[in-house]
Amino acid sequence: MVRTGIRMPLIHRSLLVCGFCAVAVLLAAAQPVSAVPLESHEEKESNLKKQATGGLFKKWTFDTDSANAVPAGFSPLSLEEASQAAWAVASDATAPSVPNVVAVTSGCDDTSCFRLLVAQGLEYEYPDLTVRFRAADGSDGIGGMVFGVKDARNFYAALVDVGRRSAQVIRMVDGAIVVLGQTPVTLKAIDWHSLRVQRNTIISKDFIETFVDGVLVLSVEDQALGTGQVGLLTQGKTSLFFDTFHAVPLFSHRPLSAPAAY
After folding, report:
1. The domain spanning residue 183 has which CATH number?
2. pLDDT tens for residues 169-225?
3. Measured between alpha carbons, how far is 89 from 242 in angstroms, rounded to an integer?
4. How far is it, in rounded angstroms, from Cα 135 to Cα 165?
5. Is position 147 within any domain?
6. What is the pLDDT of residue 20?
7. pLDDT tens-place string over residues 81-140
8. Which class for 130: exposed (0-12), middle (13-18), buried (19 or more C-beta within 10 A)?
9. CB-based burial of residue 204 (10 Å sphere; 0-12 exposed, 13-18 middle, 19+ buried)?
10. What is the pTM assigned to this prediction?
């Protein structure tokens, strides 16, 4: 039998492996240490099983909801109960999905005022969310979508400031706000803009990507919050309209269809 290739002496191979180990240790030591605790494999598996308990694919057009009322399946949420925003279904002939939209008006002048409208019965860890929005005539609204919502003091949010032409992703934990990313954006010359947010995970790193009018504008890493509810929100003094809200989990242990009968 003919053997090809060069056989390395055992002692040399051992030294080579040890050398690789030493390099790996040095590289690991050089990596920055995250202050946010990472999920273990077991915790991630548990969180994935909890998500999307109410259905895998959800789409709200609000077209069958009663006018002048909060849309069915949603609940307003804010830190200051006395100054809740006015969320209500309204008709809009310009809506991407006619005839109805969700209109919101918040008179709070403080930019730390966040008003949420949260979908009930749904929890995601890695959602893919999209919505259409426009500011009211003569208004420079600030709003977008929330995810990972535990309560009014703990959530992620992706927002667009229509007046200042900027977008940001924030994290609120125990009422403390951290801006994870912020950037100028170019809004298309259209009435209804689009906002899309995806929270994804690769090799134990969670990242959030934000798209405005179909363009990726922000990508940030964060693992502070896990499974939570999703919804809409406004910031500060704002008047906005929302339509065609989609929510889809990027990962799920649930089958997309029933098993075959054979």
Report:
1. 2.60.120.560
2. 999 999 999 999 999 999 999 999 999 999 999 887 899 999 999 999 999 999 999
3. 10
4. 12
5. yes
6. 40
7. 555 678 999 999 999 999 999 999 988 878 788 999 999 988 999 999 999 999 988 677
8. middle
9. exposed
10. 0.76
Within a domain: 170? yes
Looking at residue 8, its pLDDT comes to 44
Q: How many domains does the chain have?
A: 1
Containing structural domain, residue 117: 45-249
Cα(188)–Cα(153) distance, rounded to whole angstroms? 33
Where are the extended beta strands (E) located within 127-228? 127-135, 142-151, 154-161, 166-173, 176-184, 193-202, 205-212, 215-221
> Letter for the amino acid at 34?
S
Asked whether residue 30 is assigned to any structural domain, the reply reads no
Residue with tokens 């609120």: 172
Q: Which amino acid is at 187?
A: L
Q: Is residue 5 part of a domain?
A: no
